[in-house]
């Protein structure tokens, strides 16, 4: 072995980081991941995962979070490792974490492989846009942080809240025709199927008026009029990016919709609305109530 990689002369974390960067990580034995050791230094990437960390009282383990981790307010004061899809192996490993928990879209994948190869436990939760996804996040963070009992209690409370909200939605006498607009970057797109927004609208008792395509796309004025939404949903950040509520309603493509006549707009903070974290029951309940109110 080359002297510069000699483990007896380097601290373990520095040695593992160098190994990952050298391309030799593929031959490093599996025990290097140290999965059985207690986690003392945790990185969370994904706002919902960070919310769970705080909900379980495990925030003392956090050494950093990503820029989508904005709730609770204390999370905004944590060290940031950048946007969850644009992570850096060097930046992550410099914090000497024992574990990283994150959303499935965290990455790039090659960066997370380097982090794993350096002996860091990496656990990602697949996105299903469902209440079951929330429970999986709670279970994962509880297991990684050694707070299984707290995770079980939180899961039980969330299940009770979800059952109550689901009954309220099921008992509603009508389903508003809703359109979700994503405009965080100032370029509005509407949510089709296979999106968190579509799932949220469905869970909250609305019918998404855009089902001809999956994902997010721009929508023409003609298509907007044909879709005929009774209510429009956006995040507070998205409305701010478009210049505020008054400026939003001045957009010509909205003028021919039923929603325009009533100025039927529902907004919520983005991580609450689309995070699919512990606040999902409250997000669905608030969205359900507000949609019925503005379309009454």
From TrEMBL:
Q: Which residues form the Fe/B12 periplasmic-binding domain?
A: 41-296
* Gene3D superfamilies registered for this protein in UniProt: Nitrogenase molybdenum iron protein domain
* Taxonomic superkingdom: Bacteria
What PANTHER family does the record tag this protein with? Answer: HEMIN-BINDING PERIPLASMIC PROTEIN HMUT, VITAMIN B12-BINDING PROTEIN
Q: What is this protein called?
A: ABC transporter substrate-binding protein
Source organism? Comamonas aquatica DA1877
């Amino acid at each position: 072995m080359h002297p510069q990689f000699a483990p007896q002369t380097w601290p373990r974390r520095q040695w593992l980081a160098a190994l990952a960067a050298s391309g030799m990580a593929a031959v490093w034995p599996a025990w290097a991941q140290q999965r059985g050791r207690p986690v003392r230094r945790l990185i969370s990437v994904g706002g919902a995962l960070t919310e769970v960390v705080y909900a379980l009282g495990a925030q003392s383990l956090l050494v950093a979070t990503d820029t989508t981790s904005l709730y609770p307010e204390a999370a905004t004061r944590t060290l940031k490792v950048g946007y969850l899809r644009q992570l850096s192996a060097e930046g992550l490993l410099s914090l000497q974490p024992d574990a990283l928990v994150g959303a499935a879209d965290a990455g790039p994948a090659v960066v997370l492989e380097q982090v794993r190869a350096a002996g860091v436990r990496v656990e990602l939760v697949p996105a299903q846009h469902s209440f079951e996804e929330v429970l999986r996040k709670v279970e994962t963070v509880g297991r990684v942080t050694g707070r299984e009992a707290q995770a079980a209690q939180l899961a039980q409370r969330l299940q009770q809240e979800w059952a109550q909200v689901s009954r309220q939605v099921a008992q509603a006498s009508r389903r508003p025709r809703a359109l979700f607009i994503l405009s965080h970057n100032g370029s509005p797109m509407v949510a089709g199927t296979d999106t968190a927004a579509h799932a949220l609208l469905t869970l909250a008792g609305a019918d998404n008026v855009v089902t001809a395509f999956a994902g997010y796309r721009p929508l023409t004025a003609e298509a907007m009029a044909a879709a005929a939404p009774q209510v429009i949903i956006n995040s507070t950040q998205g409305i701010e990016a478009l210049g505020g509520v008054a400026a939003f309603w001045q957009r010509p493509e909205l003028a021919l919709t039923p929603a325009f006549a009533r100025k039927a707009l529902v907004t919520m903070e983005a991580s609450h609305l689309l995070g699919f974290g512990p606040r999902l029951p409250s997000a669905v309940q608030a969205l359900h109530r507000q949609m019925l109110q503005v379309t009454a």
